[in-house]
Specification:
heterodimer; A: DNA polymerase, domain 1; 7 helices; B: alpha+beta; five-stranded antiparallel β-sheet; 11 helices; globular
């Protein structure tokens, strides 16, 4: 079957989709967006977390056909998504009107270009991505995309989270490397920066 | 496999009547796991996501009509006052991502004894509204679970909503697992005080082939509370009464040994949870009763 949906703010269609296929499979194998990771395939690990009409979900548990007509944001579109949100406020998923979005080609070729203190180049990260790098919250990186999408969504509606809020919001994302402390640091950092920016405006 | 996408409830019923083997999929948090692991290859998937009314709820005079697909997140956010037991149970479901998709209709449809919502539904008391092209009926929750992962649905029926009694007293929910998130219950316990009828209802999860009530324990406690005038005098429940109640709740279990726990552990833990939830709810009832008295005086 064919699935028409919005991915990172742009209309896309996927062809020859098997009816039992997951949204995760469609994103990775048919859209060429392997940022969302495939690990447990049972909703345990959260590494496939994407936004579906704005709501964080495990894309491995969404049947591809259920995404028909809906808007998906993956980690590849997170930087643009966060930028749109900062500029226009509210919805940036493409679910409510036209946004610039990220073309499939751009998303496929997306690479992180952190504003590293050493290189100082590039501006194409969302605040949460930058915070993960600055706090050293990435080791093997497998869980990172899911954590980024989940953490970004929490900061969207809860700009000043307590540690308990952060733990709760990220309780569906497993990391086997970091012991989570650096990840918590990263989210606290992103929240603090967001707050400071809010004050500046 | 065919993917059926009814745009309305009527279309969904027609599709289910035409293809009784069709597997309904809403949040997908059970169905997709089975498909991903090749445990199930249904001939038809019946997508219920397009039917908006399944995601809505109405708070009535005595009951809440909860649409089958209302996600657990929404229950936690919006129905904590009306359905405190179910809201607590919802909070123990898996992770935020899963709670954003899964709903009570899925728990009921799967009818696993480990479903987190069941003990709360049994304790609160509710009716399951099911429908087919032949008509609509309401199944009392006590008659709904018929066996391991079996329920009272006919092949052509779909779950539309659950009519849950609004809380008329404190409710509690307790669950045993290895961590707070992403845990299938080793066992779980729900308890609701119903001061209006001066009764107590219970629900036990993961400790019998189906979710069950501890009816003998309820009857014992109802009689003991009545006899001691506890509903009126608001005294602390006698430890011997609480212990007897806990023992009877343990006795209501019919558990198995499995990877998550042994039968004897489950029986023991259910007794502990029964005593604790009784203490918690009763303390809250006494506190409420005391403050009401205070305001009157």
């Amino acid at each position: 079957m064919r699935v028409n949906f919005t991915v990172n703010g742009r209309k896309q269609e996927a062809d020859d989709v098997w009816e039992g296929e997951s949204l995760l499979y469609v994103l990775r194998e048919r859209m060429g967006l392997p940022g969302s990771k495939n690990a447990c395939e049972q909703g345990e690990c959260g590494s496939c977390t994407v936004r579906l009409d704005g709501v964080p979900v495990c894309s491995c548990l969404v049947a591809a056909g259920q995404a028909e007509g809906r808007a998906v944001v993956t980690v590849e579109g997170l930087a643009e998504f966060a930028k749109q949100r900062a500029e226009h406020g509210g919805c940036a998923s493409g679910a409510c009107g036209d946004t610039k979005g990220t073309s499939l080609q751009d998303a496929q070729q997306w690479q992180s270009k952190p504003t590293d203190s050493q290189t100082g180049e590039g501006v194409e990260l969302s605040p949460i991505q930058q915070a993960f790098i600055d706090a050293g919250a990435v080791q093997c990186g497998f869980c990172t995309p899911g954590l980024l999408v989940a953490a970004d969504e929490m900061l969207e509606h809860n700009p000043s989270p307590t540690d308990a809020d952060i733990r709760e919001a990220l309780s569906g994302n497993l990391c086997r490397c970091t012991g989570y402390e650096k990840i918590l640091d990263a989210v606290r950092l992103a929240a603090a920066r967001q707050e400071r920016q809010g004050e500046a405006v | 496999m065919d993917f059926l996408r009814p745009a309305s409830w009527e279309e969904a019923l027609a599709a289910k009547a035409e293809h009784p083997t069709a597997v309904p999929i809403a949040g997908g948090t059970d169905v997709m796991v089975e498909i991903n692991f090749d445990h199930r290859r249904p001939e038809y998937l019946l997508d219920l996501n397009r039917i908006g009314e399944l995601g809505e709820w109405e708070v009535g005079q005595d009951t809440v009509r909860l649409g089958a697909s209302v996600p657990y997140t929404k229950i936690m956010e919006n129905l904590r006052t009306e359905l405190p037991g179910l809201a607590l149970a919802s909070h123990t479901v898996a992770s935020p991502q899963i709670r954003n998709r899964g709903g009570v209709g899925g728990n009921l449809g799967t009818a696993s004894p480990a479903g987190d919502a069941h003990p709360a539904l049994l304790a609160a008391d509710c009716e399951v509204e099911v429908e087919s092209v032949r008509g609509s009926r309401r199944i009392p929750i006590d008659d709904f679970y018929t066996g391991v992962k079996r329920n009272a649905l006919a092949p052509d029926e779909l779950i539309r909503a659950v009519h849950i009694k609004k809380a008329d007293g404190p409710q509690q929910y307790s669950k045993v697992g290895t961590r707070n998130a992403m845990v299938i219950a080793v066992c779980a316990f729900g308890l609701a005080l119903h001061p209006e009828t001066r009764t107590v209802r219970t629900g036990i999860g993961s400790a019998a082939p189906t979710p069950v009530r501890a009816t003998a324990a309820e009857e014992f406690l109802n009689a003991a509370l009545e006899e001691g005038g506890f509903w009126d005098n608001g005294k602390i429940i006698t430890p011997s009464v609480a212990k007897q109640f806990a023992d009877l709740c343990s006795a209501a279990c019919n558990p198995i040994d499995d990877v998550r726990g042994t039968a004897s552990y489950r029986r023991h833990a259910v007794g502990i949870m029964a005593r604790r939830t009784l203490t918690w709810t009763w303390e809250s009832y006494r506190g409420g009763a005391a403050s009401t008295k205070g305001s009157v005086a």
